[in-house]
Amino acid sequence: MATRTARDLTGPVLTARAVTRSFGPAVVLAGVDLTIAAGETVALLGGSGSGKSTLLRVLAGLDGDAGGEHAVHGTAAVVFQEHRLLPWKRVAGNVALGLTGPDVGERVGRALAEVGLADRGRAWPAELSGGQAQRVAVARALVREPDLLLLDEPFGALDALTRLRMQGLLRRLRAQHGFAALLVTHDVEEALLLADRVLLLDDGVIAEEVPVRLGPSPSPDDPALGALRRHLLDRLGVPAG
Amino acid sequence: MSGPALAEATAPVVPDRATPRRSRARVPRRWRRAVSPVVLVLAWEAAARTGLLAPEKLPAPSAVLATGWRLARDGTLGVHLLDSLTRAALGLLIGGGLALVLGAAAGLLRLGDDLVDPPVQMARMLPHLGLVPLLIIWVGIGESLKVTLVALGAFFPIYFNTYAGIRDIDERLVEAARTCGLGAAARLRHVVLPGALPALFLGLRLAIGAAWLSLVVGEQVNAQTGVGFLMMEAREFSQTDVVVLGLLIYALLGLASDLLIRYAERRTLAWRRGLRAT
């Protein structure tokens, strides 16, 4: 909470200037500029191997070998494609990882209740389904009250029905908590449904920026969505019908 | 076409037939496995009683147990057992502790890996029991020889399993812990240690086996106490029953330590039971 109030509430939560990253001779990021405003959801779209996960890792501070400047103003939390729960800690222990203070148990309970798993705190991660484990991962990020949530294809490994539910959950949580989010995905539909702005990563740079204005609760049947979807798929190299 | 179709048609039939038969046999099976050891012991007893086995070659199991009871009651057995256990514990503590520190250094730090691992890999090729002549020159034939042998035997399994246990930890979990704000010490405690624990237990079990083996050899070199001494002394007076008793004690020590470790493993690695339950 302290970092939240200390942060300038009107300023951006994330700024990145000329971020570069190469693996040997292969240049994956060739100077990415990115700013995310408070409370804004930005989707980062790109084909396989376009470097979108690499960029998220850099922004999350997990990659020390990247060039350029980037800073998170406030607190950030990460949800990965795999749940990455510690198998030797119960669900509540995983959510509480790294937390301190007298009210940890209460905060963990609240976070688990928010993802609908209030009664699973005593379970081992191995006893959960894929969707449940991913919800615990979301709770683990949420309990930190982040200003920015970094999501690396968080629903990519889930079945279609679970994915839809998770997208709904994320939208609801964002409306409640007002965190900003950077969503890395290869799913155009998901990007359009969840984001205020879609960035297209191509050839190591942000090749295009598309604002999405679909209203507060967009429906997949919105005609404006269809046009945007077609445009983005064209840019990703997916031919029409 | 007919091959897979045939397999499909017959496949469900086989387990159907086998399942009830196996469940019926499950309860008696445990007892069935006890039959041959019991028969062997009874045959041994009978052969000794009837004089088929000369008592100076192999006394009856009942005679061995009687000897054990006699030595336990007059306190001899307790003294020697305590000395053997002390040597084993001391050697395990020294060898295992050193292995834990060096294995962790090699597993966690690149510098440690480069400096520690090559000499350890080279030393591993030496059969440590073959070092006895050299060790006698270095540390003499007293207590330190026995403890050194046990320490050497315990070192390698713990070192290698510590190293492998740390290296096998999923890097992605360490990363997730970093994003949760865990520093190096907290990551060591919450990720590395519990992640390496199964391998550490395996190393400890192997080390205890090696420790007993080292003790058997070490206590036959000029020992004044210990189970091995008891056996060597008995051999000189042709007390075969005491020799066999010594063997039995070594076996029971191995069994008891293994059970103890297994119990500790079940207690601390409860999360793996959850893994198996699904």
Automatic annotation (TrEMBL), chain A:
Gene3D superfamilies: P-loop containing nucleotide triphosphate hydrolases. Pfam families: ABC_tran. GO terms for molecular function: ATP binding. It comes from the Bacteria. Keywords: ATP-binding, Cell membrane, Membrane, Nucleotide-binding, Translocase, Transport. SMART domains: AAA (SM00382). The keyword Cell membrane applies. Residues 14-228 form the ABC transporter domain. This is Sulfonate transport system ATP-binding protein. It comes from Micromonospora tulbaghiae.
TrEMBL record, chain B:
SUPFAM superfamilies: MetI-like. The chain crosses the membrane at residues 88-111, 191-213, 242-263. Residues 1-22 are annotated as: Disordered. It is a multi-pass membrane protein. Residues 81-261 form the ABC transmembrane type-1 domain. The keyword Isomerase does not apply. Its main location: membrane. It holds the Pfam family BPD_transp_1. It comes from the Bacteria. It is found in: Cell membrane. Keywords: Cell membrane, Membrane, Transmembrane, Transmembrane helix, Transport. Belongs to the binding-protein-dependent transport system permease family. This is Sulfonate transport system permease protein. It comes from Micromonospora tulbaghiae.
